[in-house]
Amino acid sequence: MMMPGMMPGGPAGAAAGGPPAAPADDGKNRDLSDKIDKSQCYARNESSQYPWTNLLIGDTRLGCKSDADEQLILHVEFHEFVKVHSIKFTEFNSGRDPSEAPTLVKLYVNRCNMGFEDVEDVDPTQVLELTAADLKEDADPIKLQFVKFQRVRSITFFVEENDGGDVSAMGGLKLIGRTVATTNMKDFKKQG
């Protein structure tokens, strides 16, 4: 049985040569890497040899390291609002230097242009205390306080402490969740 507005082979727009319809939100969580707006992301105190963009590559030998000390700020911005369910941190270089692994990470939702002077003045959305087991490649993602991550446009990560190393290092970062259904106001037409 065909639904009104449907044509054989799919939605009317797609069958009529229009743009393909966006996939519907199936309610399943997935990797949000393709929703990250890399041009709006930044890091503070990152090593030039190990920049934040390495976290998205999938090779933990490249990863991201802090520069002058153990503290590191990573700001991740999305193209659209998302619901973030969990986060997967992966250890740097298979954990060859466990003292560089982050142990205390503070998360700030929808806070832009944060620097080290701001992290003391603003309450974090959530604080994560990480163990070596949390950072293993086969470890489960860390579930977030989902109610606080329902309409996220950006997340700022503040790596405050590590396991005693001079610098902090992460091998990978994955954000798991789904997009938020929104209305594009440009699609509305003025009624006469």
Tell me about this structure.
- Keywords: Disulfide bond.
- Residues 7-16 have a biased composition (Gly residues).
- It comes from Minutocellus polymorphus.
- InterPro entries: Galactose-bd-like_sf, PITH_dom, PITH_dom_sf.
- It is a single chain.
- This protein is mainly β.
- It has one domain (31-179): Jelly Rolls, CATH 2.60.120.470.
- It is 2% helix and 34% strand.
- It has one helix and twelve strands; from the N terminus they run ββαββββββββββ.
- The longest helix is centred in the first third of the chain and has 4 residues, at 12-15.
Key traits:
192 residues; mainly beta; Jelly Rolls; two-stranded antiparallel sheet; 1 helix; 12 strands; globular
